[in-house]
Design a protein that fits this description.
Elements: H1 13-31, E1 35-39, E2 42-46, H2 52-71
């Protein structure tokens, strides 16, 4: 039987749970037509802004990310309250 070992990053379940959470965010953004690039604990949103509709799309992406982070009690780097 495999044994999960603790370390500096905590237990082995933490990284798996984060992947589940982050996958949910990627699917949420995709459902709104927003492309997200995921790597480790980073999410990058790629949107070309050529008109006001694109600007609203970017704001929607930022709002979705902020709501998702608040739901899961996670902080978004760069945002201040």
């Amino acid at each position: 039987m495999a044994k999960l070992q603790s370390g500096v990053q905590g237990n082995g379940v933490g990284p798996v749970m984060f992947l589940i959470y982050i996958d949910e965010l990627a699917k949420l953004l995709k459902s709104h037509g927003i492309i997200a690039k995921l790597f480790a604990d980073e999410v990058k949103v790629c949107i070309e802004i050529v008109n006001t509709v694109d600007a609203y799309k970017l704001q929607t992406a930022l709002d979705l990310i902020a709501e998702w982070a608040a739901t899961w009690h996670m902080a978004v780097a760069g945002l201040r309250k």
